Write the structure tokens for this entry.
Amino acid sequence: MTAQGPGLEGGLGERLGLLRLRNFRRVFLAQSVSVFGDGITPVALTFAVLELTGSGTDLGLVLAAQVLPLAGLALVGGVWADRLRREKVMIASDLVRAAVQATAAALLLSGTARIWQLAILAALHGAAEAFFRPAAGALLPQLVPARDLQQANALMGMSDNFGWFVGPAVAGTLVALIGAGGAIAVDAATFVISAAFLTSLRVPALVRSRPSQRFALELRDGWREVRSRTWLWVMLLRVCLVLCIVIAPFQVLGPLGLTEQGYTPLAWGWIMAAFSLGMILGAAVALRYRPKRPMITVTFAGGTALLAPLALALGFGPWTLAAVQAGRGVAVGVLVAVWNTALQTEVEEEALGRIVAWDWMASLALWPVGLALAGPLAEWLGVTTTAWISVGLGSVAAFWVLAVGDVWRMRSRVDAGPAA
């Protein structure tokens, strides 16, 4: 923490000055291009599935197919992110995902796509992403000084969410003009461009305090790092539950509810874009705001997820849903920067890939369950009733961690650098 305290500090020009760092700038640009494509695909894939079968169950299964290998292989990806050069792992993942998306686009454009094919390709995409995410999350402390990590995370969040703002907004138009296959082809091209930026990185090799051990031992050491911090494993369990009960179901309930109300794919695209616009604003706040108790900020910011299914349960239309998602996005933009900085300053760099992997694994472990159950429940009970169940159970899942003392005691070490 700086001598100025945890409040608002510094100027915007100083924060954007991080882009003058060559390696950081290239990672920033790679992400900016790739995430734009990522923002297109969920909208395109959602309505490709609905056009093929019109089934909420099929939609949930295809979306879950991508998340399952991402959750299942995240820990494996984390070990390799701590063993290999992280930028090389990211490049390989980009190229694999480019090939996967190009194949999906070709199937859709040719009119030969089947649900099982889209599910398999989604699973391959998720498997490649499982190696990318831990490497990307662990690479940042090698690119910028420790004192600038929260600002770097905020800038990356702004880049990430600008892509998720523009991508879904463009997606609805692309799907209407050139179909879902053409939209997914754009995503394939962005992965190639991202890989090109990453190949120009010149990152010094990470200095390790001990040689690599057997895979199982390194995997076990990652779990020990998590278990040794009560605030960490408690918050990981919390996000696992919230994503399963609240956020994942809304990805199915949202488009189903809007379709029942007579709205087009464009409406859902703009609602997703509103959330990302909010996250851009939230990341801008995180450039300057440093909370004293990071985990309390994360808890309340994450709790805003309840507002989306609540608005859907109350029968509100796309304008209200977009406003709710924009406000929620501001909260999540702050959350992401604060959370990532906490991990990067509390964990030593040579173990950080495995901790980021545990973060991703916990976040996504039950996500496929939420996706897979939301469709059948909505068909059985109706969208409104299912949304109310999500709000009720999600309220408990979001806030039980406030009873854990270590969550309150954990203080910011944003200027202290990674733990020794």
In short: The chain has one domain: 16-201+214-409. The CA atoms of residues 91 and 195 lie 5 Å apart. The domain at 16-201+214-409 is CATH 1.20.1250.20 (Growth Hormone; Chain: A;).
